[in-house]
Amino acid sequence: MKSLRKFLRSITFISLIITESGYSQFLFTPFENESSYKGTWNLSQEIPNYIAAYLREFYKVNVLSSTAFLSLVEKNNINETEAHDFQTITSIANEIDFGYFVTGKVNDFDIARFSAGESNIAGYEAYSCEISISLQIFDLSKNTIAFAGNVESSVSNKGLGLNLFGGSSDEKKQYLALNKIRFGSEEFNKTIVGETMLILCEDLALDIKSSNKEILFPKRESKKQIELEDKTLDEFQLKIEIKKGQLLTYDESSGEAFINLGFSSNINVGDELSIYAQADSLFDPITQEFLGLSDKSISTLEIVEIRDEKLSLAVVKNNREQVRKGMEVQKLVLKSKE
User: Fold this and answer.
1) Burial class, 177, CB count within 10 angstroms (exposed 0-12 / middle 13-18 / buried 19+)
2) Could you tell me the residue ranges of all domains in the chain?
3) Which residue from 22, 71, 139, 333 has the highest number of Cβ atoms inside 10 Å of its Cβ?
4) What is the 3-state secondary structure (H, E, C) of the chain?
5) Pairing state of beta strands 62-64 and 25-28?
6) Cα torsion for 86, 92, 95, 97, to the nearest 10°?
7) Do domains 4-235 and 240-334 have the same CATH topology?
8) Are 312 and 267 a contacting pair, CB within 8 Å?
9) Cα–Cα distance measured from residue 152 to residue 203, given in angstroms and rounded to the nearest whole number
10) Do 98 and 27 form a contact (C-beta atoms < 8 A)?
């Protein structure tokens, strides 16, 4: 196999940077698509690319998309069959100094619309989306599978859209236009499919952290690595912001708490937020100037009811004895363009 570094220099959407980094590095390969989806989206690349963009934005890991991987395969004159070969993927990942590569399968990708009533008079509509994937993360340094699992997510439109006198509801217009929307765009993120994909990624990240936290948070402090800036992922609008609030009240016996986040904070019933407590004092290592206090996550709470623009009822799920009124709560959310 010829040196991939030479081919990297000729690919326009990849730039090569030597950086001091302790972050994990993931090479994504195209997923097998075994779903019944027949639309225009190329799920074998779109889904792993969305996951790659999510991990890059939310966990600051270095990623190479499945699209960029296929470009490397093509530039290196590797045929399509060999591109999915374990030894080929391993060789490419090692050549560009990536610690992990990701393979997977799309098991289910279903978007459904339910309607009732006379379409030319009045009716009700509901929509649902179900996505299921299988995924493996291979650790090249240890030559073993670091994570393997199945992740499923689903969203149902519980509020049925009313369709009067044959007119189309906003939900129906969105449903009919889905295949015209670019996968991962800001418009896509507002659809039921975008909501389902985000939940899928959130659940996947939780599963990875529960199984092997070092995958996303390596113990090494610093190591010279190659960072590949994959421009193909710039199409995915997954910029994030941190929503911060406080525990206004807290009942340790029941776990119930009111927080000062609500409709205006882009949170929903069922969302989980982290609860933080102040930890160590931080000082500048050179001047010894006091910089502030660090915080650490001690628990999580789940939103059970949104009462107002800045008020929600929640239930603390664990470590209730460590939680106190006034503690900070946080959630990472997608940031919309102004």
Assistant:
1) exposed
2) 4-235, 240-334
3) 71
4) CCCHHHHHCCCCCEEEEEEEECCCEEEECCCEECCCCCCCCCHHHHHHHHHHHHHHHHHCCEEECHHHHHHHHHHCCCCHHHHCCHHHHHHHHHHCCCCEEEEEEEEEEEEEEEEEEECCCEEEEEEEEEEEEEEEEEECCCCEEEEEEEEEEEEECCCCEEEECCCCCHHHHHHHCHHHCCCCCHHHHCCHHHHHHHHHHHHHHHHHHHHCHHHCCCCCCCEEEEEEEEHHHHHCCCCEEEEEEEEEEECCCCCEEEECCCHHHCCCCCCEEEEEEEEEEEECCCCCCEEEEEEEEEEEEEEEEEEECCEEEEEECCCHHHCCCCCEEEEEEECCCC
5) parallel
6) -80
7) no
8) yes
9) 8
10) yes
Cβ neighbours of residue 235 under 8 Å, at least 6 residues apart?
A: 182, 184, 185
Yes or no: is domain 240-334 CATH 3.40.50.720? no
Residue 77's Cβ-count burial label (10 Å; 0-12, 13-18, 19+) is exposed
The highest-level CATH class for domain 4-235 is alpha beta
Residue 274 CA, chain-centre distance (Å), reads 17
Residue with tokens 């030894």: 87
Asked if pLDDT for residue 39 goes beyond 70, the answer is yes
CA distance linking residue 106 with residue 233, whole number of Å: 19
- Reported as a single tens digit per residue, the pLDDT across 235-257 is 776 666 777 899 999 999 999 99
The answer to whether 233 and 49 have CB atoms below 8 angstroms apart is: yes
Nearest CA among 129, 203, 117, 204 for reference residue 161: 117
Q: How many CA atoms lie within 13 A of 38 on its CB side?
A: 2
pTM: 0.66
Mark residue 60 as left, alpha or beta (left: phi above 0; alpha: psi -120 to 50; beta: remaining): left
- Structure tokens of 199? 């939940």
- Cβ atoms of 247 and 324 closer than 8 Å: yes
Distance (Å, whole) CA 319 – CA 99: 34
Confidence (pLDDT) at 97: 74
Interval 6-27: pLDDT, tens: 444 334 344 444 344 456 789 8
> How far is the C-alpha of 182 from the C-alpha of 233, rounded, in Å?
12
